[in-house]
């Protein structure tokens, strides 16, 4: 099985270059201002211009308005929208129709019960992303990119009618085990390939993609 990897939160040329050279299937740009990985549509456009055809450009949004999404879609020529907030199934379906782009909806997991929320999006989204839900006492929690993992065995127990990605706390060291337990065919990483929050480490990106390719 070939593992498709997404490097999310890219915001500089070195990170983009490492993702491309390493064989990433997706590159992600964050359009959420509180995130240290946030880029403007203009910055994303400059970075996206370096991405060759065949690598999907994904825009991450958190409860964003249509105008903000439209600016990012136009600037970076996005191929996919990723909704990482509290967007309802109706909102996801409406955005998919309005922008004529596939939509990936993040489902945040802390327990088996959280998996049930995914069923509401089966008809609205094109793809799911399973990420860790931060505990209530987690200081400075973001909608994603917190470097937290969840119980991967929970995903391994279920089958899904939509394509999906595994996210949350992944890095080159734990990736093999994560894929073994979840049977993931696609993976997403952000903080696990950083030197510090918001600063991608090209060497870590390379190591992560090398590991993904070896699985």
Keywords:
about 220 residues, alpha/beta, TIM Barrel, 8-stranded parallel β-sheet, two-stranded antiparallel sheet, globular
Q: Could you please describe the fold and organization of this structure?
A:
The protein is an alpha/beta fold. It has a single domain, classed as Aldolase class I (TIM Barrel, Alpha-Beta Barrel). It is 30% helix and 20% strand. Helix 2 (41-48) packs parallel to helix 3 (66-76). The chain is globular and about 40 Å long. The model has no long low-confidence stretch (mean pLDDT 93).
- CATH homologous superfamily placement: Aldolase class I
Order of helices and strands: EHEHEHEHEEHEHEEEH
- What level of helicity do the residues show? 25-40%
Number of helices: 7
Short description:
The chain is an alpha/beta fold and 215 residues long. 30% of the residues lie in helices and 20% in strands.
Secondary-structure blueprint:
Elements: E1 4-7, H1 13-22, E2 26-30, H2 41-48, E3 56-61, H3 66-76, E4 80-83, H4 89-99, E5 103-109, E6 127-132, H5 153-156, E7 164-166, H6 175-182, E8 186-189, E9 194-196, E10 199-200, H7 202-214
Helix pairs in contact: 1-7, 2-3
């Amino acid at each position: 099985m070939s593992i498709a990897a997404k490097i999310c939160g890219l915001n500089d040329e070195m990170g983009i270059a490492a993702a491309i050279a390493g064989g990433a299937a997706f590159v992600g740009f964050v359009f959420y201002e509180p995130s240290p990985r946030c880029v403007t549509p203009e910055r994303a456009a400059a970075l996206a211009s370096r991405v060759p055809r065949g690598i999907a450009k994904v825009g991450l949004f958190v409860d964003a308005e249509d105008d903000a999404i439209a600016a990012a879609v136009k600037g970076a020529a996005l191929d996919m929208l990723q909704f990482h907030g509290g967007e309802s199934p109706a909102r996801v379906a409406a955005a998919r129709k309005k922008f004529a782009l596939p939509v990936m909806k993040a489902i945040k997991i802390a327990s088996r019960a959280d998996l049930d929320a995914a069923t509401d999006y089966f008809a609205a989204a094109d793809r799911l992303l399973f990420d860790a839900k931060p505990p209530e006492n987690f200081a400075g929690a973001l909608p994603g990119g917190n470097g937290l993992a969840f119980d991967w065995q929970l995903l391994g127990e279920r089958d899904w009618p939509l394509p999906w990605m595994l996210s949350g706390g992944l890095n080159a060291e734990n990736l093999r085990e994560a894929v073994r337990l979840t049977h993931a065919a696609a993976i997403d990483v952000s903080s696990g390939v950083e030197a510090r929050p918001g600063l991608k480490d090209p060497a870590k990106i390379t190591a992560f993609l090398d590991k993904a390719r070896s699985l």
